[in-house]
Design goal:
The complex is a heterodimer.
Chain A (H helix, E strand, L loop, with lengths): L22 E5 L5 H9 L6 E5 L16 E5 L14 E4 L15 E4 L15 E4 L12 E7 L13 E6 L15 E4 L10 E4 L3 H13 L10 E5 L15
Parallel strand pairs in A: 1-2, 2-3, 3-4, 4-5, 5-6, 6-7, 7-8, 8-9
Antiparallel strand pairs in A: 9-11, 10-11
Chain B lengths: L3 H4 L29 H13 L4 E4 L11 E3 L20 E3 L8 E3 L3 E3 L9 H13 L3 E3 L7 H6 L2 E6 L8 H6 L2 E5 L11 E2 L6 H7 L7 E2 L9 H15 L6 E6 L3 H10 L4 E5 L5 E5 H6 L4 H14 L7 E5 L5 H9 L4 E4 L1 H7 L7 H6 L24 H4 L4 H25 L13 E3 L2 H7 L14
Helix pairs in contact in B: 3-15, 8-10, 10-16, 11-15, 12-15
The chains are: A mainly beta, B alpha/beta.
The structure holds flavin mononucleotide (FMN).
Chain lengths: ~250, ~450
């Protein structure tokens, strides 16, 4: 179960350390996911948590509202850090479908690969994937920033509304299909662009923005090597003559 | 009816549905049953504009419906309850399968999901007021939760849609139930739609979209497909809400037997089945009229799935699509629903299609009783609009009172029928209380044709 030194539960033994709370460990080899999430929902700002033996379980560390740091040591299943709102979640391993879906703010970092629909519909915050991401990365993104160290799969940034997607490797087919106001930066090749997505010029403003995102993700890639993509804004209104564009 | 920029070219082709029919028979004119005047006008409109017709409301064609069923009142073999003296309860608990805080409603008539965006903020507030006054729930829609509706709704269901517009975990936690929307009866397989004239700054801000664009939302959820994924998704929503909040799954009726079974398997607390007559704010007419099955046909299929899985009355069934009267409510419940939801009828109770705006409807090429251009944003009754001046025409307090009145009437009418059938709770109504007037209704509802013991297709 919870083999932890919960500072508030264990009361005075730790003393009122400068470290706000110490680190608590939850071992998912024995504790159910429910126990982990309840503990994180009850957590207070400044605490640190380590999750061991995640074993690819789903819905790990979802719905966090306190400014805490969570370290998941191993692979996570679907919806890891879903609807994240504050603090950081770091997954040392791979993540399944819907990593950090609908993230509002805070940071989620995966050291390995992420499956489909990473950061789907995210409204804010930063999602960093050191490895590759599968199909539909950033689908319907609404303000989140995503930095992928490797490549991303097809239909990524589909209907992307706002936010920035940075890809240090290559992008799959139909990138940015039906994109709205999100910005996409890709260093490598793009297999194909989706409907209404076009390459756009890199101005100093964009190079600056990209440099900031790369730095936030702890990367050293040069912004000058990237190309920018975004909406041609031709499908914003119904038009008879667009019927073959979709 | 059509998109405004195009409409300007084509007013001549818009039929005046209230115009008197010419004296056809005497003058030897014969209208074609295949190419009737509405069909001819549709072809002319399509030829003139090159765009399909988008409108609100639901299917207007005639389909087998609750009108084709009758109740067998009690007499000798069963005895009735005293009309005004003996108790007939109407309350319903929704979502007690897995959620620690199920909803307990005083009437089984709930308000269906209609978005702020499709409806004005005043209309949303009025729906909340009316529903709260009689102890029932109201539902958000494709566009997020407004403070107006949260503030005025005692029981608020939060829709979780493919677009995830305005989807916010704080609102999720504020909700009394979560409704995962897979589809709508008016358009099973279709996504949402909100045309530019309704995407004002506030609506655009809530949806993170540019002001004034024609929004077409996704028809599939972005981070799950199929029942195995849905089960995991429901698990995530439960974890985020600490297993307090009931989770509904809403489907548009097309294959309700399988969809209901799969929703149960995925862990839903409540299944919402919306038949093809169900209303919409904006959908292609060809979609509204030709996709999905009637509410009447959907209920027995959904109930069968629940019964076979041993969860009928444990996983509650909410039915919508064409509910207008207490008789409709009673019939839906007798066929096995636990509750119903109303959309169109609630808007009418607020003031939609009110004859006092006859002149305004006429100016739009429509008439009171025919108006269905909810997509257009120029609703004379101030309900399906974002125009601040039009929206002022609906007083949310007065509108809420009218809705509460109407909900009370629906409940009392259903009670009247239930007592006549000898039932002390609306949920004691059963298929045995019903017969069908037509062979079609008999086959769909799976109750015998009146005066016979025959159910086409049974056994
Ligand atoms: C104006 C309007 C807006 C609607 N918006 C939504 C919506 O956002 N999400 C949804 O699931 N259904 C929506 N619906 C469908 C209703 O939730 C409900 O399924 C339908 O209205 C029930 O049928 P009825 O209108 O015959 O009562 C809308 C319906 C109307 C009339």
């Amino acid at each position: 179960m919870v083999t932890l030194t919960l500072p508030d539960a264990a009361a005075p033994t730790e003393g009122a350390g400068a470290e706000a709370a110490g680190t608590s460990t939850i071992d998912l080899g024995t504790a159910p996911v429910r126990e982990l999430n309840q503990a994180l929902h009850d957590a207070v700002d400044g605490q640190s948590w380590t999750v061991t033996s995640p074993g690819g379980r789903h819905s790990l560390a979802v719905g966090i509202t306190a400014d805490i740091d969570v370290a998941i040591e191993g692979h996570a299943g679907y919806y890891a850090a879903g609807m994240h709102q504050k603090g950081s979640v770091t997954i040392t391993g791979n993540a399944g479908v819907g990593l950090a879906e609908n993230i509002m703010s805070g940071t989620v970092h995966v050291t390995g690969d992420a499956s489909q629909s990473a950061a789907a519909t995210g409204h804010g915050g930063l999602v960093v994937i050191d490895g590759n991401a599968g199909a539909r990365c950033g689908i319907s993104m609404k303000g989140v920033d995503i930095v992928v160290g490797g490549s991303i799969g097809h239909m990524s940034a589909f209907m992307a509304q706002a936010g920035r997607l940075v890809v240090c490797g290559d992008a799959g087919d139909a990138l940015g299909d039906s994109i709205y106001e999100a910005r996409i930066y890709v260093r490598g090749s793009v297999a194909s662009l989706g409907a209404d997505c076009i390459e756009k010029p890199m101005t100093p403003e964009h190079l600056d923005e990209l440099a900031g995102l790369l730095a936030a993700a702890g990367r050293t890639d040069s912004p000058a090597d990237f190309k920018r993509y975004g909406s041609a804004r031709k499908l914003y209104h119904f038009n008879v003559h667009n019927s073959t564009s979709y | 009816m059509t998109l405004p920029p195009v409409q300007q070219d084509a007013p001549a082709h818009i039929p005046a549905p209230h115009a008197p029919a010419p004296n056809t028979a005497e003058s030897g004119l014969r209208e074609s049953a295949t190419f009737d005047r509405a069909t001819i006008a549709d072809i002319q409109r399509a030829a003139a504009t090159g765009v399909y017709d988008i409108r609100g409301w639901g299917a207007k064609r005639k389909v087998p419906h609750f009108d084709d069923l009758l109740f067998l009142g009690a007499s000798m073999s069963r005895y009735p309850l005293e009309g005004y003296r003996e108790k007939c309860d109407t309350d319903v608990v929704l979502g007690d399968r897995h959620a620690s805080r199920p909803l307990h409603l005083q009437t089984p008539v709930t308000i269906a999901g209609m978005s702020f965006g499709a409806l004005s903020a005043n209309a949303k507030e009025a729906l909340g007021r009316g529903a709260s006054e009689v102890g029932t729930s109201t539902t958000t829609g494709d566009g997020g939760m407004t403070p107006e509706e949260r503030g005025q709704s005692r029981h608020l269901v939060y829709q979780y849609l493919p677009s995830r517009y305005g989807m916010n975990p704080d609102d999720l936690r504020k909700a009394d139930a979560i409704e995962i929307v897979l589809g709508q009866g008016a358009k099973p397989g279709g996504g949402g739609m909100l045309l530019g004239q309704k995407i004002t700054e506030r609506v655009a801000g809530m949806r993170t979209l540019p002001v004034g664009i024609d929004q077409r939302s996704a028809s599939r959820h972005p981070d799950w497909t199929g029942p195995d994924d849905l089960e995991i998704k429901i698990g995530e929503l439960r974890e985020i809400t600490d297993w307090r909040t009931p989770v509904y799954v809403k489907i548009g009726a097309s294959r309700p037997y399988y969809d209901t079974a799969l929703a149960v398997k995925s862990g839903a607390d409540v299944v919402v089945v919306d038949g093809m007559q169900g209303g919409t704010a904006a959908t292609q007419q060809v979609f509204i009229e030709n996709v999905g099955i009637p509410t009447l046909a959907a209920i027995p299929q959904a109930v069968q799935a629940l019964q076979e899985l041993g969860v009928h009355r444990k996983v509650q069934l909410i039915v919508s699509g064409g509910i207008r009267t207490g008789a409709d409510v009673a019939k839906a419940l007798a066929l096995g629903a636990d509750a119903v939801a109303i959309g169109t009828a609630a808007l009418i109770a607020l003031g939609d299609n009110d004859p006092r705006y006859a002149a305004d409807y006429s100016a739009l090429g429509s008439a009171a009783g025919f108006y269905d251009d909810f997509q257009d944003g120029r609703d004379p009754a101030g309900i399906t609009t974002q125009d601040p001046d039009l929206a002022l025409r609906l007083d949310p307090v007065a509108g809420g009172r009218r809705l509460a009145n109407y909900l009370r009437v629906l409940t009392m009418e259903a009670q009247t029928i239930a007592r006549a059938c000898g039932k002390s709770h609306l949920h004691n109504l059963e298929p045995e209380d019903l017969v069908a007037l037509t062979i079609e209704a008999s086959a769909m509802a799976r109750v015998p044709l009146a005066g016979t013991s025959w159910i086409p297709g049974a056994g």
